[in-house]
Amino acid sequence: MKVEVWSDYVCPFCYIGKRQLEKAIKDSGYEGQVEVELKSFLLDPNTPLDAEESVYTSLAKKYNMSENEAKKMTNNVAERAKEVGLQYNFDIMKNANTNAAHRLAKWAAKKGKGPELSERILKAYFLEGAAIGRHEVLLKLAEEVGLNRQDAQAVLKSDEFAAEVEQDILEAQSLGVRGVPFFVIDNKYGISGAQPQPLFNQTIEKAANEAGLKPKLKIIGDNGSVCSDGQCDL
């Protein structure tokens, strides 16, 4: 079974939705049987490459509100993030152009490190306030997940994978995607946004059943632990 996910690295609900999808796959017992493909989406391709504007300032301009109102809005998002185990820090976040990050993630996927790099970029931006639009930051993150710095630098200095990023965006447009995250499950079902967890669970379960997948057997231990494939999670 395949799940395609359109997202952007500066979209707070994309990281939340990613965690919800991961939980749905794990809880349903289909880990290892679901291929997740991350697709590119640029919320604001016109963001300057050297952007230094705070998230509060950027949101205030975008939605024609005060920075205090923007802070209140992000507080609600931060609370939602906590529900899935993410500690967002909007105070240190700055706006960023994510085109280079998407191109590098495409290259990382070719090297078998796509999920690792994407997760590291999201964590760096939302939890650490990293300037993910800058090449030096992306190179550091690539190294941290085991990718070759010189090869990564060559990708960033070129226009490699720009066509692949553009193709993802055009595909999203053809599907009528207006915002992210957007999930397409086995070319049958779509989920728009970080919806309530039960919707993810039910959709994954339904698609998996139709695909003929069999969930891994789970045995509940005497102490309430969940055991699967020789391992127990308390």
Report the order of strands and helices. EHEHHHHHHHEEHEEE
Strand order of the largest sheet: 2-1-3-4
How much of the sequence lies in strands comes to 5-15%
Total beta strands: 7
Mind explaining what this structure looks like?
With 234 residues, this protein is of the alpha+beta class. It is 50% helix and 12% strand. The chain has helices spanning 12-28, 55-63, 67-82, 99-110, 114-128, 135-144, 149-157, 162-174, 197-211; strands at 2-7, 35-40, 182-185, 189-192, 219-220, 226-228, 231-233. The chain has a four-stranded mixed sheet with strand order 2-1-3-4, with helices on both faces. It has a three-stranded antiparallel sheet with strand order 5-6-7, with no helix packed on it. Helix 1 (12-28) crosses helix 9, helix 2 crosses helix 3 (67-82) and helix 4 (99-110) packs antiparallel against helix 5. The protein is globular, with a radius of gyration of 19 Å.
Architecture blueprint of SSEs:
Layout (H helix, E strand, L loop, with lengths): L1 E6 L4 H17 L6 E6 L14 H9 L3 H16 L16 H12 L3 H15 L6 H10 L4 H9 L4 H13 L7 E4 L3 E4 L4 H15 L7 E2 L5 E3 L2 E3 L1
Parallel strand pairs: 1-2
Antiparallel strand pairs: 1-3, 3-4, 5-6, 6-7
Outline of this structure?
The chain is an alpha+beta fold and 234 residues long.
